[in-house]
Amino acid sequence: MKLPFDEMLDAAGKARPHYQIFHNWLKQQSDTLMGLKRAEADLIFRRVGITFAVYGDDLGSERTIPFDQVPRIFAAKEWAQLEKGLRQRVKALNRFIYDVYHEEDIIKAGIIPAEQIFNNAQYRPEMRNVNIPRDIYAQIAGIDIVRAGEGEFYVLEDNLRVPSGVSYMVEDRKMMMRLFPDLFQKYRVAPVEHYPDLLLECLKSVKPEDVKKPNVVVLTPGMYNSAYFEHSYLAQQMGVELVEGKDLFVKNEQVFMRTTQGPERVDVIYRRVDDDFLDPLSFRSDSTLGVAGLLSAYRAGNVTLANAIGTGIADDKSIYPYVPDMIEFYLGEKPILNNVPTFQCRKPGDLAYTLANLDKLVVKLTHGAGGYGMLVGPAASRAEIEEFRAHLIANPDKYIAQPTLALSTCPTFVESGVAPRHIDLRPFVLSGKTIKMVPGGLTRVALKEGSLVVNSSQGGGTKDTWVLEE
Amino acid sequence: MLSRTADCLYWMARYTERAENTARMLDVNHQTSLLPQPAEFLEQSWKKLLTISKLEADFLSKYDVINRENVLDFMIYETSNPSSIVSCLYAARENARVIRGKITSEVWETQNTTWLELQRILEARDQADPSRLLDWVKHRCHLFRGVMYGTMLKNESFYFINIGTLLERADNTARILETKYEDQASLKVLRAQNNGGDNEDGGSFFDFYHWAALLRSVSAFEIYRQIYSDQVVPKQVAQLLIFNKQMPRSLVCCVNELISLIAEVENNQSREIERLLGKLKASLDYSDIDEVFSQGLEEFIESFLERINHIADEFSTAYLIPLASN
Questions:
Q1: Is A48 at the interface with chain B, CB within 8 A?
Q2: Which of A244, A317, B92, B152 has its CA 20 to 30 A from that of A331?
């Protein structure tokens, strides 16, 4: 079997040019020293409280996300191409969301079947003909990308609802600088720490039109949410309030927060609460995380939500196969980034193929996230495959299938020393007045040998991501 | 600032201060319990420690005997006791975690490290030396305040933290004084019963340790010496802890500081708090220790506690409970 592409070493086992310096440096480091650095990193993450609550673990237990000391490095040129592709893709996705809630051109043109949109649970009829600032729906997008070979990148999924992980991108960089300052003298690494500044600028640029100095807040489900650290981190770094639903109220279709000096108007909400929980009057009535009447204030144009309500229609796995078509349709351009070939199990032909090749394919729930509800064929047991087959036959509409990609690997510190582990990349794309992003993103690594699941909720780790400056 | 944020800042500070004062009281009791003294008195002094915080019933539902080991266990480790040191440090850290964005990362890391170190102490709980542990608690609380003063902007966050600290401190100082004063009275009775009062030397020797311990529990032993250059006399001890404007844990000092802090966070509901604090200050300013003793120290303190806690309630209503939504 062909070995997966290794980020650091070529097929002959020699370091690739942009990894050359690092490779030499790494050879000179003793295992003991690297072990000590690793322990130091864990200690610092704990003391600083950069922790993650894992669902299904003991109540109140906090874990640090394993941090790996070998960075994932991009040469400037390769990144430039990726960045271009990301901008193109996010631009098209935003155009698409606008379209499905307004003119529906893409449906009229027969590119996407109407039932794929209107029967989708992620489509929010409440958003029909609602106009929002700059027609931007996904101000913050996290696009998951994997590499299969030299210059061969695939978009695995688009996260357009409440993508998380950006705080780890920044904290991993700080940690690398703290542990190995000498490396940053050997390499010119593009900085990422200004992400919160870009985010604030982006959020301000989508303020309601009549507001002069917008009051921006971050809305969190609360301290028991697994990403609470990130919510609090971003609010602090942007210098804005971190609010919970109970801190806000709506009066005369305007949103206010309760402060020690009385009610204060809120104009832009960077919300990290899912659509379903945002407003108990309009969505789930049992939600205690939202704000009663928020939707009415939003529809009246008195507050901006980032991301908008209803973006799920564009990152649903059943819509994913159409993204390349969207790019051509809205932008008249050839897609720069590849989609993974996808079998839509709702189509009889695709279903038959999938059922016949379950041991070779990755099968996913169209509404799933976080690596749950999926089958990785080559890694699954016979029993698991048969169990999944039953689900698939019962509900073909709910699934898509993709060939198992040979995800690239990156050398990673594991118990047995340095060994290759599969990785992906989540760059964060900010869309406001213009599209902005910091170079790189969050590299996630599957720490188990051979595993392709990089999600932190399932024991994945993270790496610092370097984009080298020319 | 969000009312909920102010609430967390306030309680983070109160719980930290409470942990410190509990540690102080326990330490002093632990030290004095090592002195030769009547057994009834020993039990009495541990019992007082429970009644001071209205915890006697909870304690007796868990333990049979009131003694040093059990009270230390209950007041340091017991998580079902909301006033135990472990509970206070936990609550302080949880509050800090919610509003970590409103305090400096140094302040947050101090609170978090305290909690992480406490986990290690709890793991080796059998070997824990009470005095060392209590010293550690005091030290961590000092560190919290120091880091806060050294790193935080003097803004609303800073003021709400200080208001929490001072309201808790005023309450705690008053309670410590009250308990120890009652101790003194019951000791007199015991001594009279035991030896008819003819062992004057031994008695005053014990008196000295008793009052010295009280002073130490509020870091005031050296201050007392410096100010009075005199024997440790109960009346002067009370005077120092109630009326001395320079003594950071005295009632007057807490009230004065609260007045200037409230002025910094003034809102349209703060008038009543200012009025109550002003009245309390006036009643302290225009009184003296002789008047307090002729009124009865216990009565004086009861009334002080009632007033300061009423002020804390008013403060909650004006700032912490989300203001009316209309």
A1: yes
A2: A317
Q: Does A171 touch chain B (CB under 8 A)?
A: no
Alpha helices in B53-126 (DSSP H): 56-60, 68-76, 85-98, 105-123
Residue type for position A379: A
Strand A417-426 to strand A409-414: parallel, antiparallel, or no bridges (unpaired)?
A: antiparallel
d(C-alpha A125, C-alpha A300), whole Å = 16
Give the tokens for residue B253. 């000092």
Q: Taking the CA atoms of chain A, what radius of gyration do you get in angstroms?
A: 22
The SS3 assignment for A274 reads coil
Helix A195-205 and helix A166-179, axial crossing angle in degrees, nearest 10? 160
Contact yes or no for B114/B94 (Cβ under 8 A): no
Q: Alpha-carbon distance A379 to A405, whole Å?
A: 13
Q: Does A259 touch chain B (CB under 8 A)?
A: yes
DSSP letter at A58 equals: S
Please give the Cα distance from B41 to B23 (Å, whole number).
21
Parallel/antiparallel/unpaired status of strands A461-467 and A442-445 = antiparallel
Question: Would you call B267 and A261 a contact, using CB atoms and an 8 Å cutoff?
Answer: yes
Residue A240's contacts (CB-CB under 8 Å, 6 or more residues apart) are A200, A215, A216, A217, A218
Q: How far apart are CA B122 and CA B120, in angstroms?
A: 5
Q: How far, in Å, CA of A363 to CA of A387, rounded?
A: 12
Classify each residue of B282-314 as buried b or exposed e, where b means 16 or more C-beta atoms within 10 Å of its C-beta. eebeeeebeebeeeebeebbeebeebbeebbeb
Rounded CA-CA distance A49/A57 in Å is 18
Residue among A47, A233, A260, A264 with most chain B CBs within 10 A, to mutate: A260
**Which residue, among B9, B11, B100, would best test binding to A if mutated, counting the most A CBs under 10 Å from its CB?**
B100
Among candidate residues A316, A222, A304, the one with its CA nearest the CA of residue A265: A304
Instruction: Choose the closest CB to A260 out of B3, B105, B326.
Output: B3
Give the closest residue to B208 by CA, choosing from B179, B228, B186, B237. Answer: B237
The DSSP secondary-structure symbol of A418 reads E
Q: Within 10 A of A21 (CB to CB), how many other CB atoms are there?
A: 15
Per-residue pLDDT tens digits of chain A, which is 470 residues long: 568 899 999 999 999 999 999 999 999 998 889 989 989 998 888 888 887 665 554 444 677 888 999 999 999 999 999 999 999 999 999 999 999 999 999 999 999 999 999 999 899 999 999 999 999 999 999 999 999 988 889 999 999 999 999 999 999 999 999 999 999 999 999 999 999 999 999 999 999 999 999 999 999 999 888 889 999 999 999 999 999 999 999 999 999 999 998 899 999 999 999 999 999 998 888 888 999 999 999 999 999 999 999 999 999 988 999 999 999 999 999 999 999 999 999 889 999 999 999 999 989 888 765 566 788 888 888 998 998 899 899 989 889 999 988 889 999 998 888 999 999 999 999 999 999 999 999 999 999 888 887 877 677 899 999 999 97
Q: Tokens for A334? A: 């050839």
Which positions in chain B have a beta carbon within 8 angstroms of at least one beta carbon in chain A? 1-6, 94, 97-102, 105, 108-109, 112-113, 116, 156, 160, 265, 267-268, 319, 322-323, 325-326
| Sequence-separated (6 or more) residues with CB below 8 Å from residue A283 | A275, A276, A277, A290, A295
Report yes or no: A64 at the B interface, CB cutoff 8 Å.
no
- Our CA dihedral for B141, B144, B150, B155, rounded to 10 degrees, sits at -110
CA distance A459 to A445: 9
Q: What secondary structure letter does DSSP report for B79?
A: T
- The answer to whether B90 and B77 have CB atoms below 8 angstroms apart is no
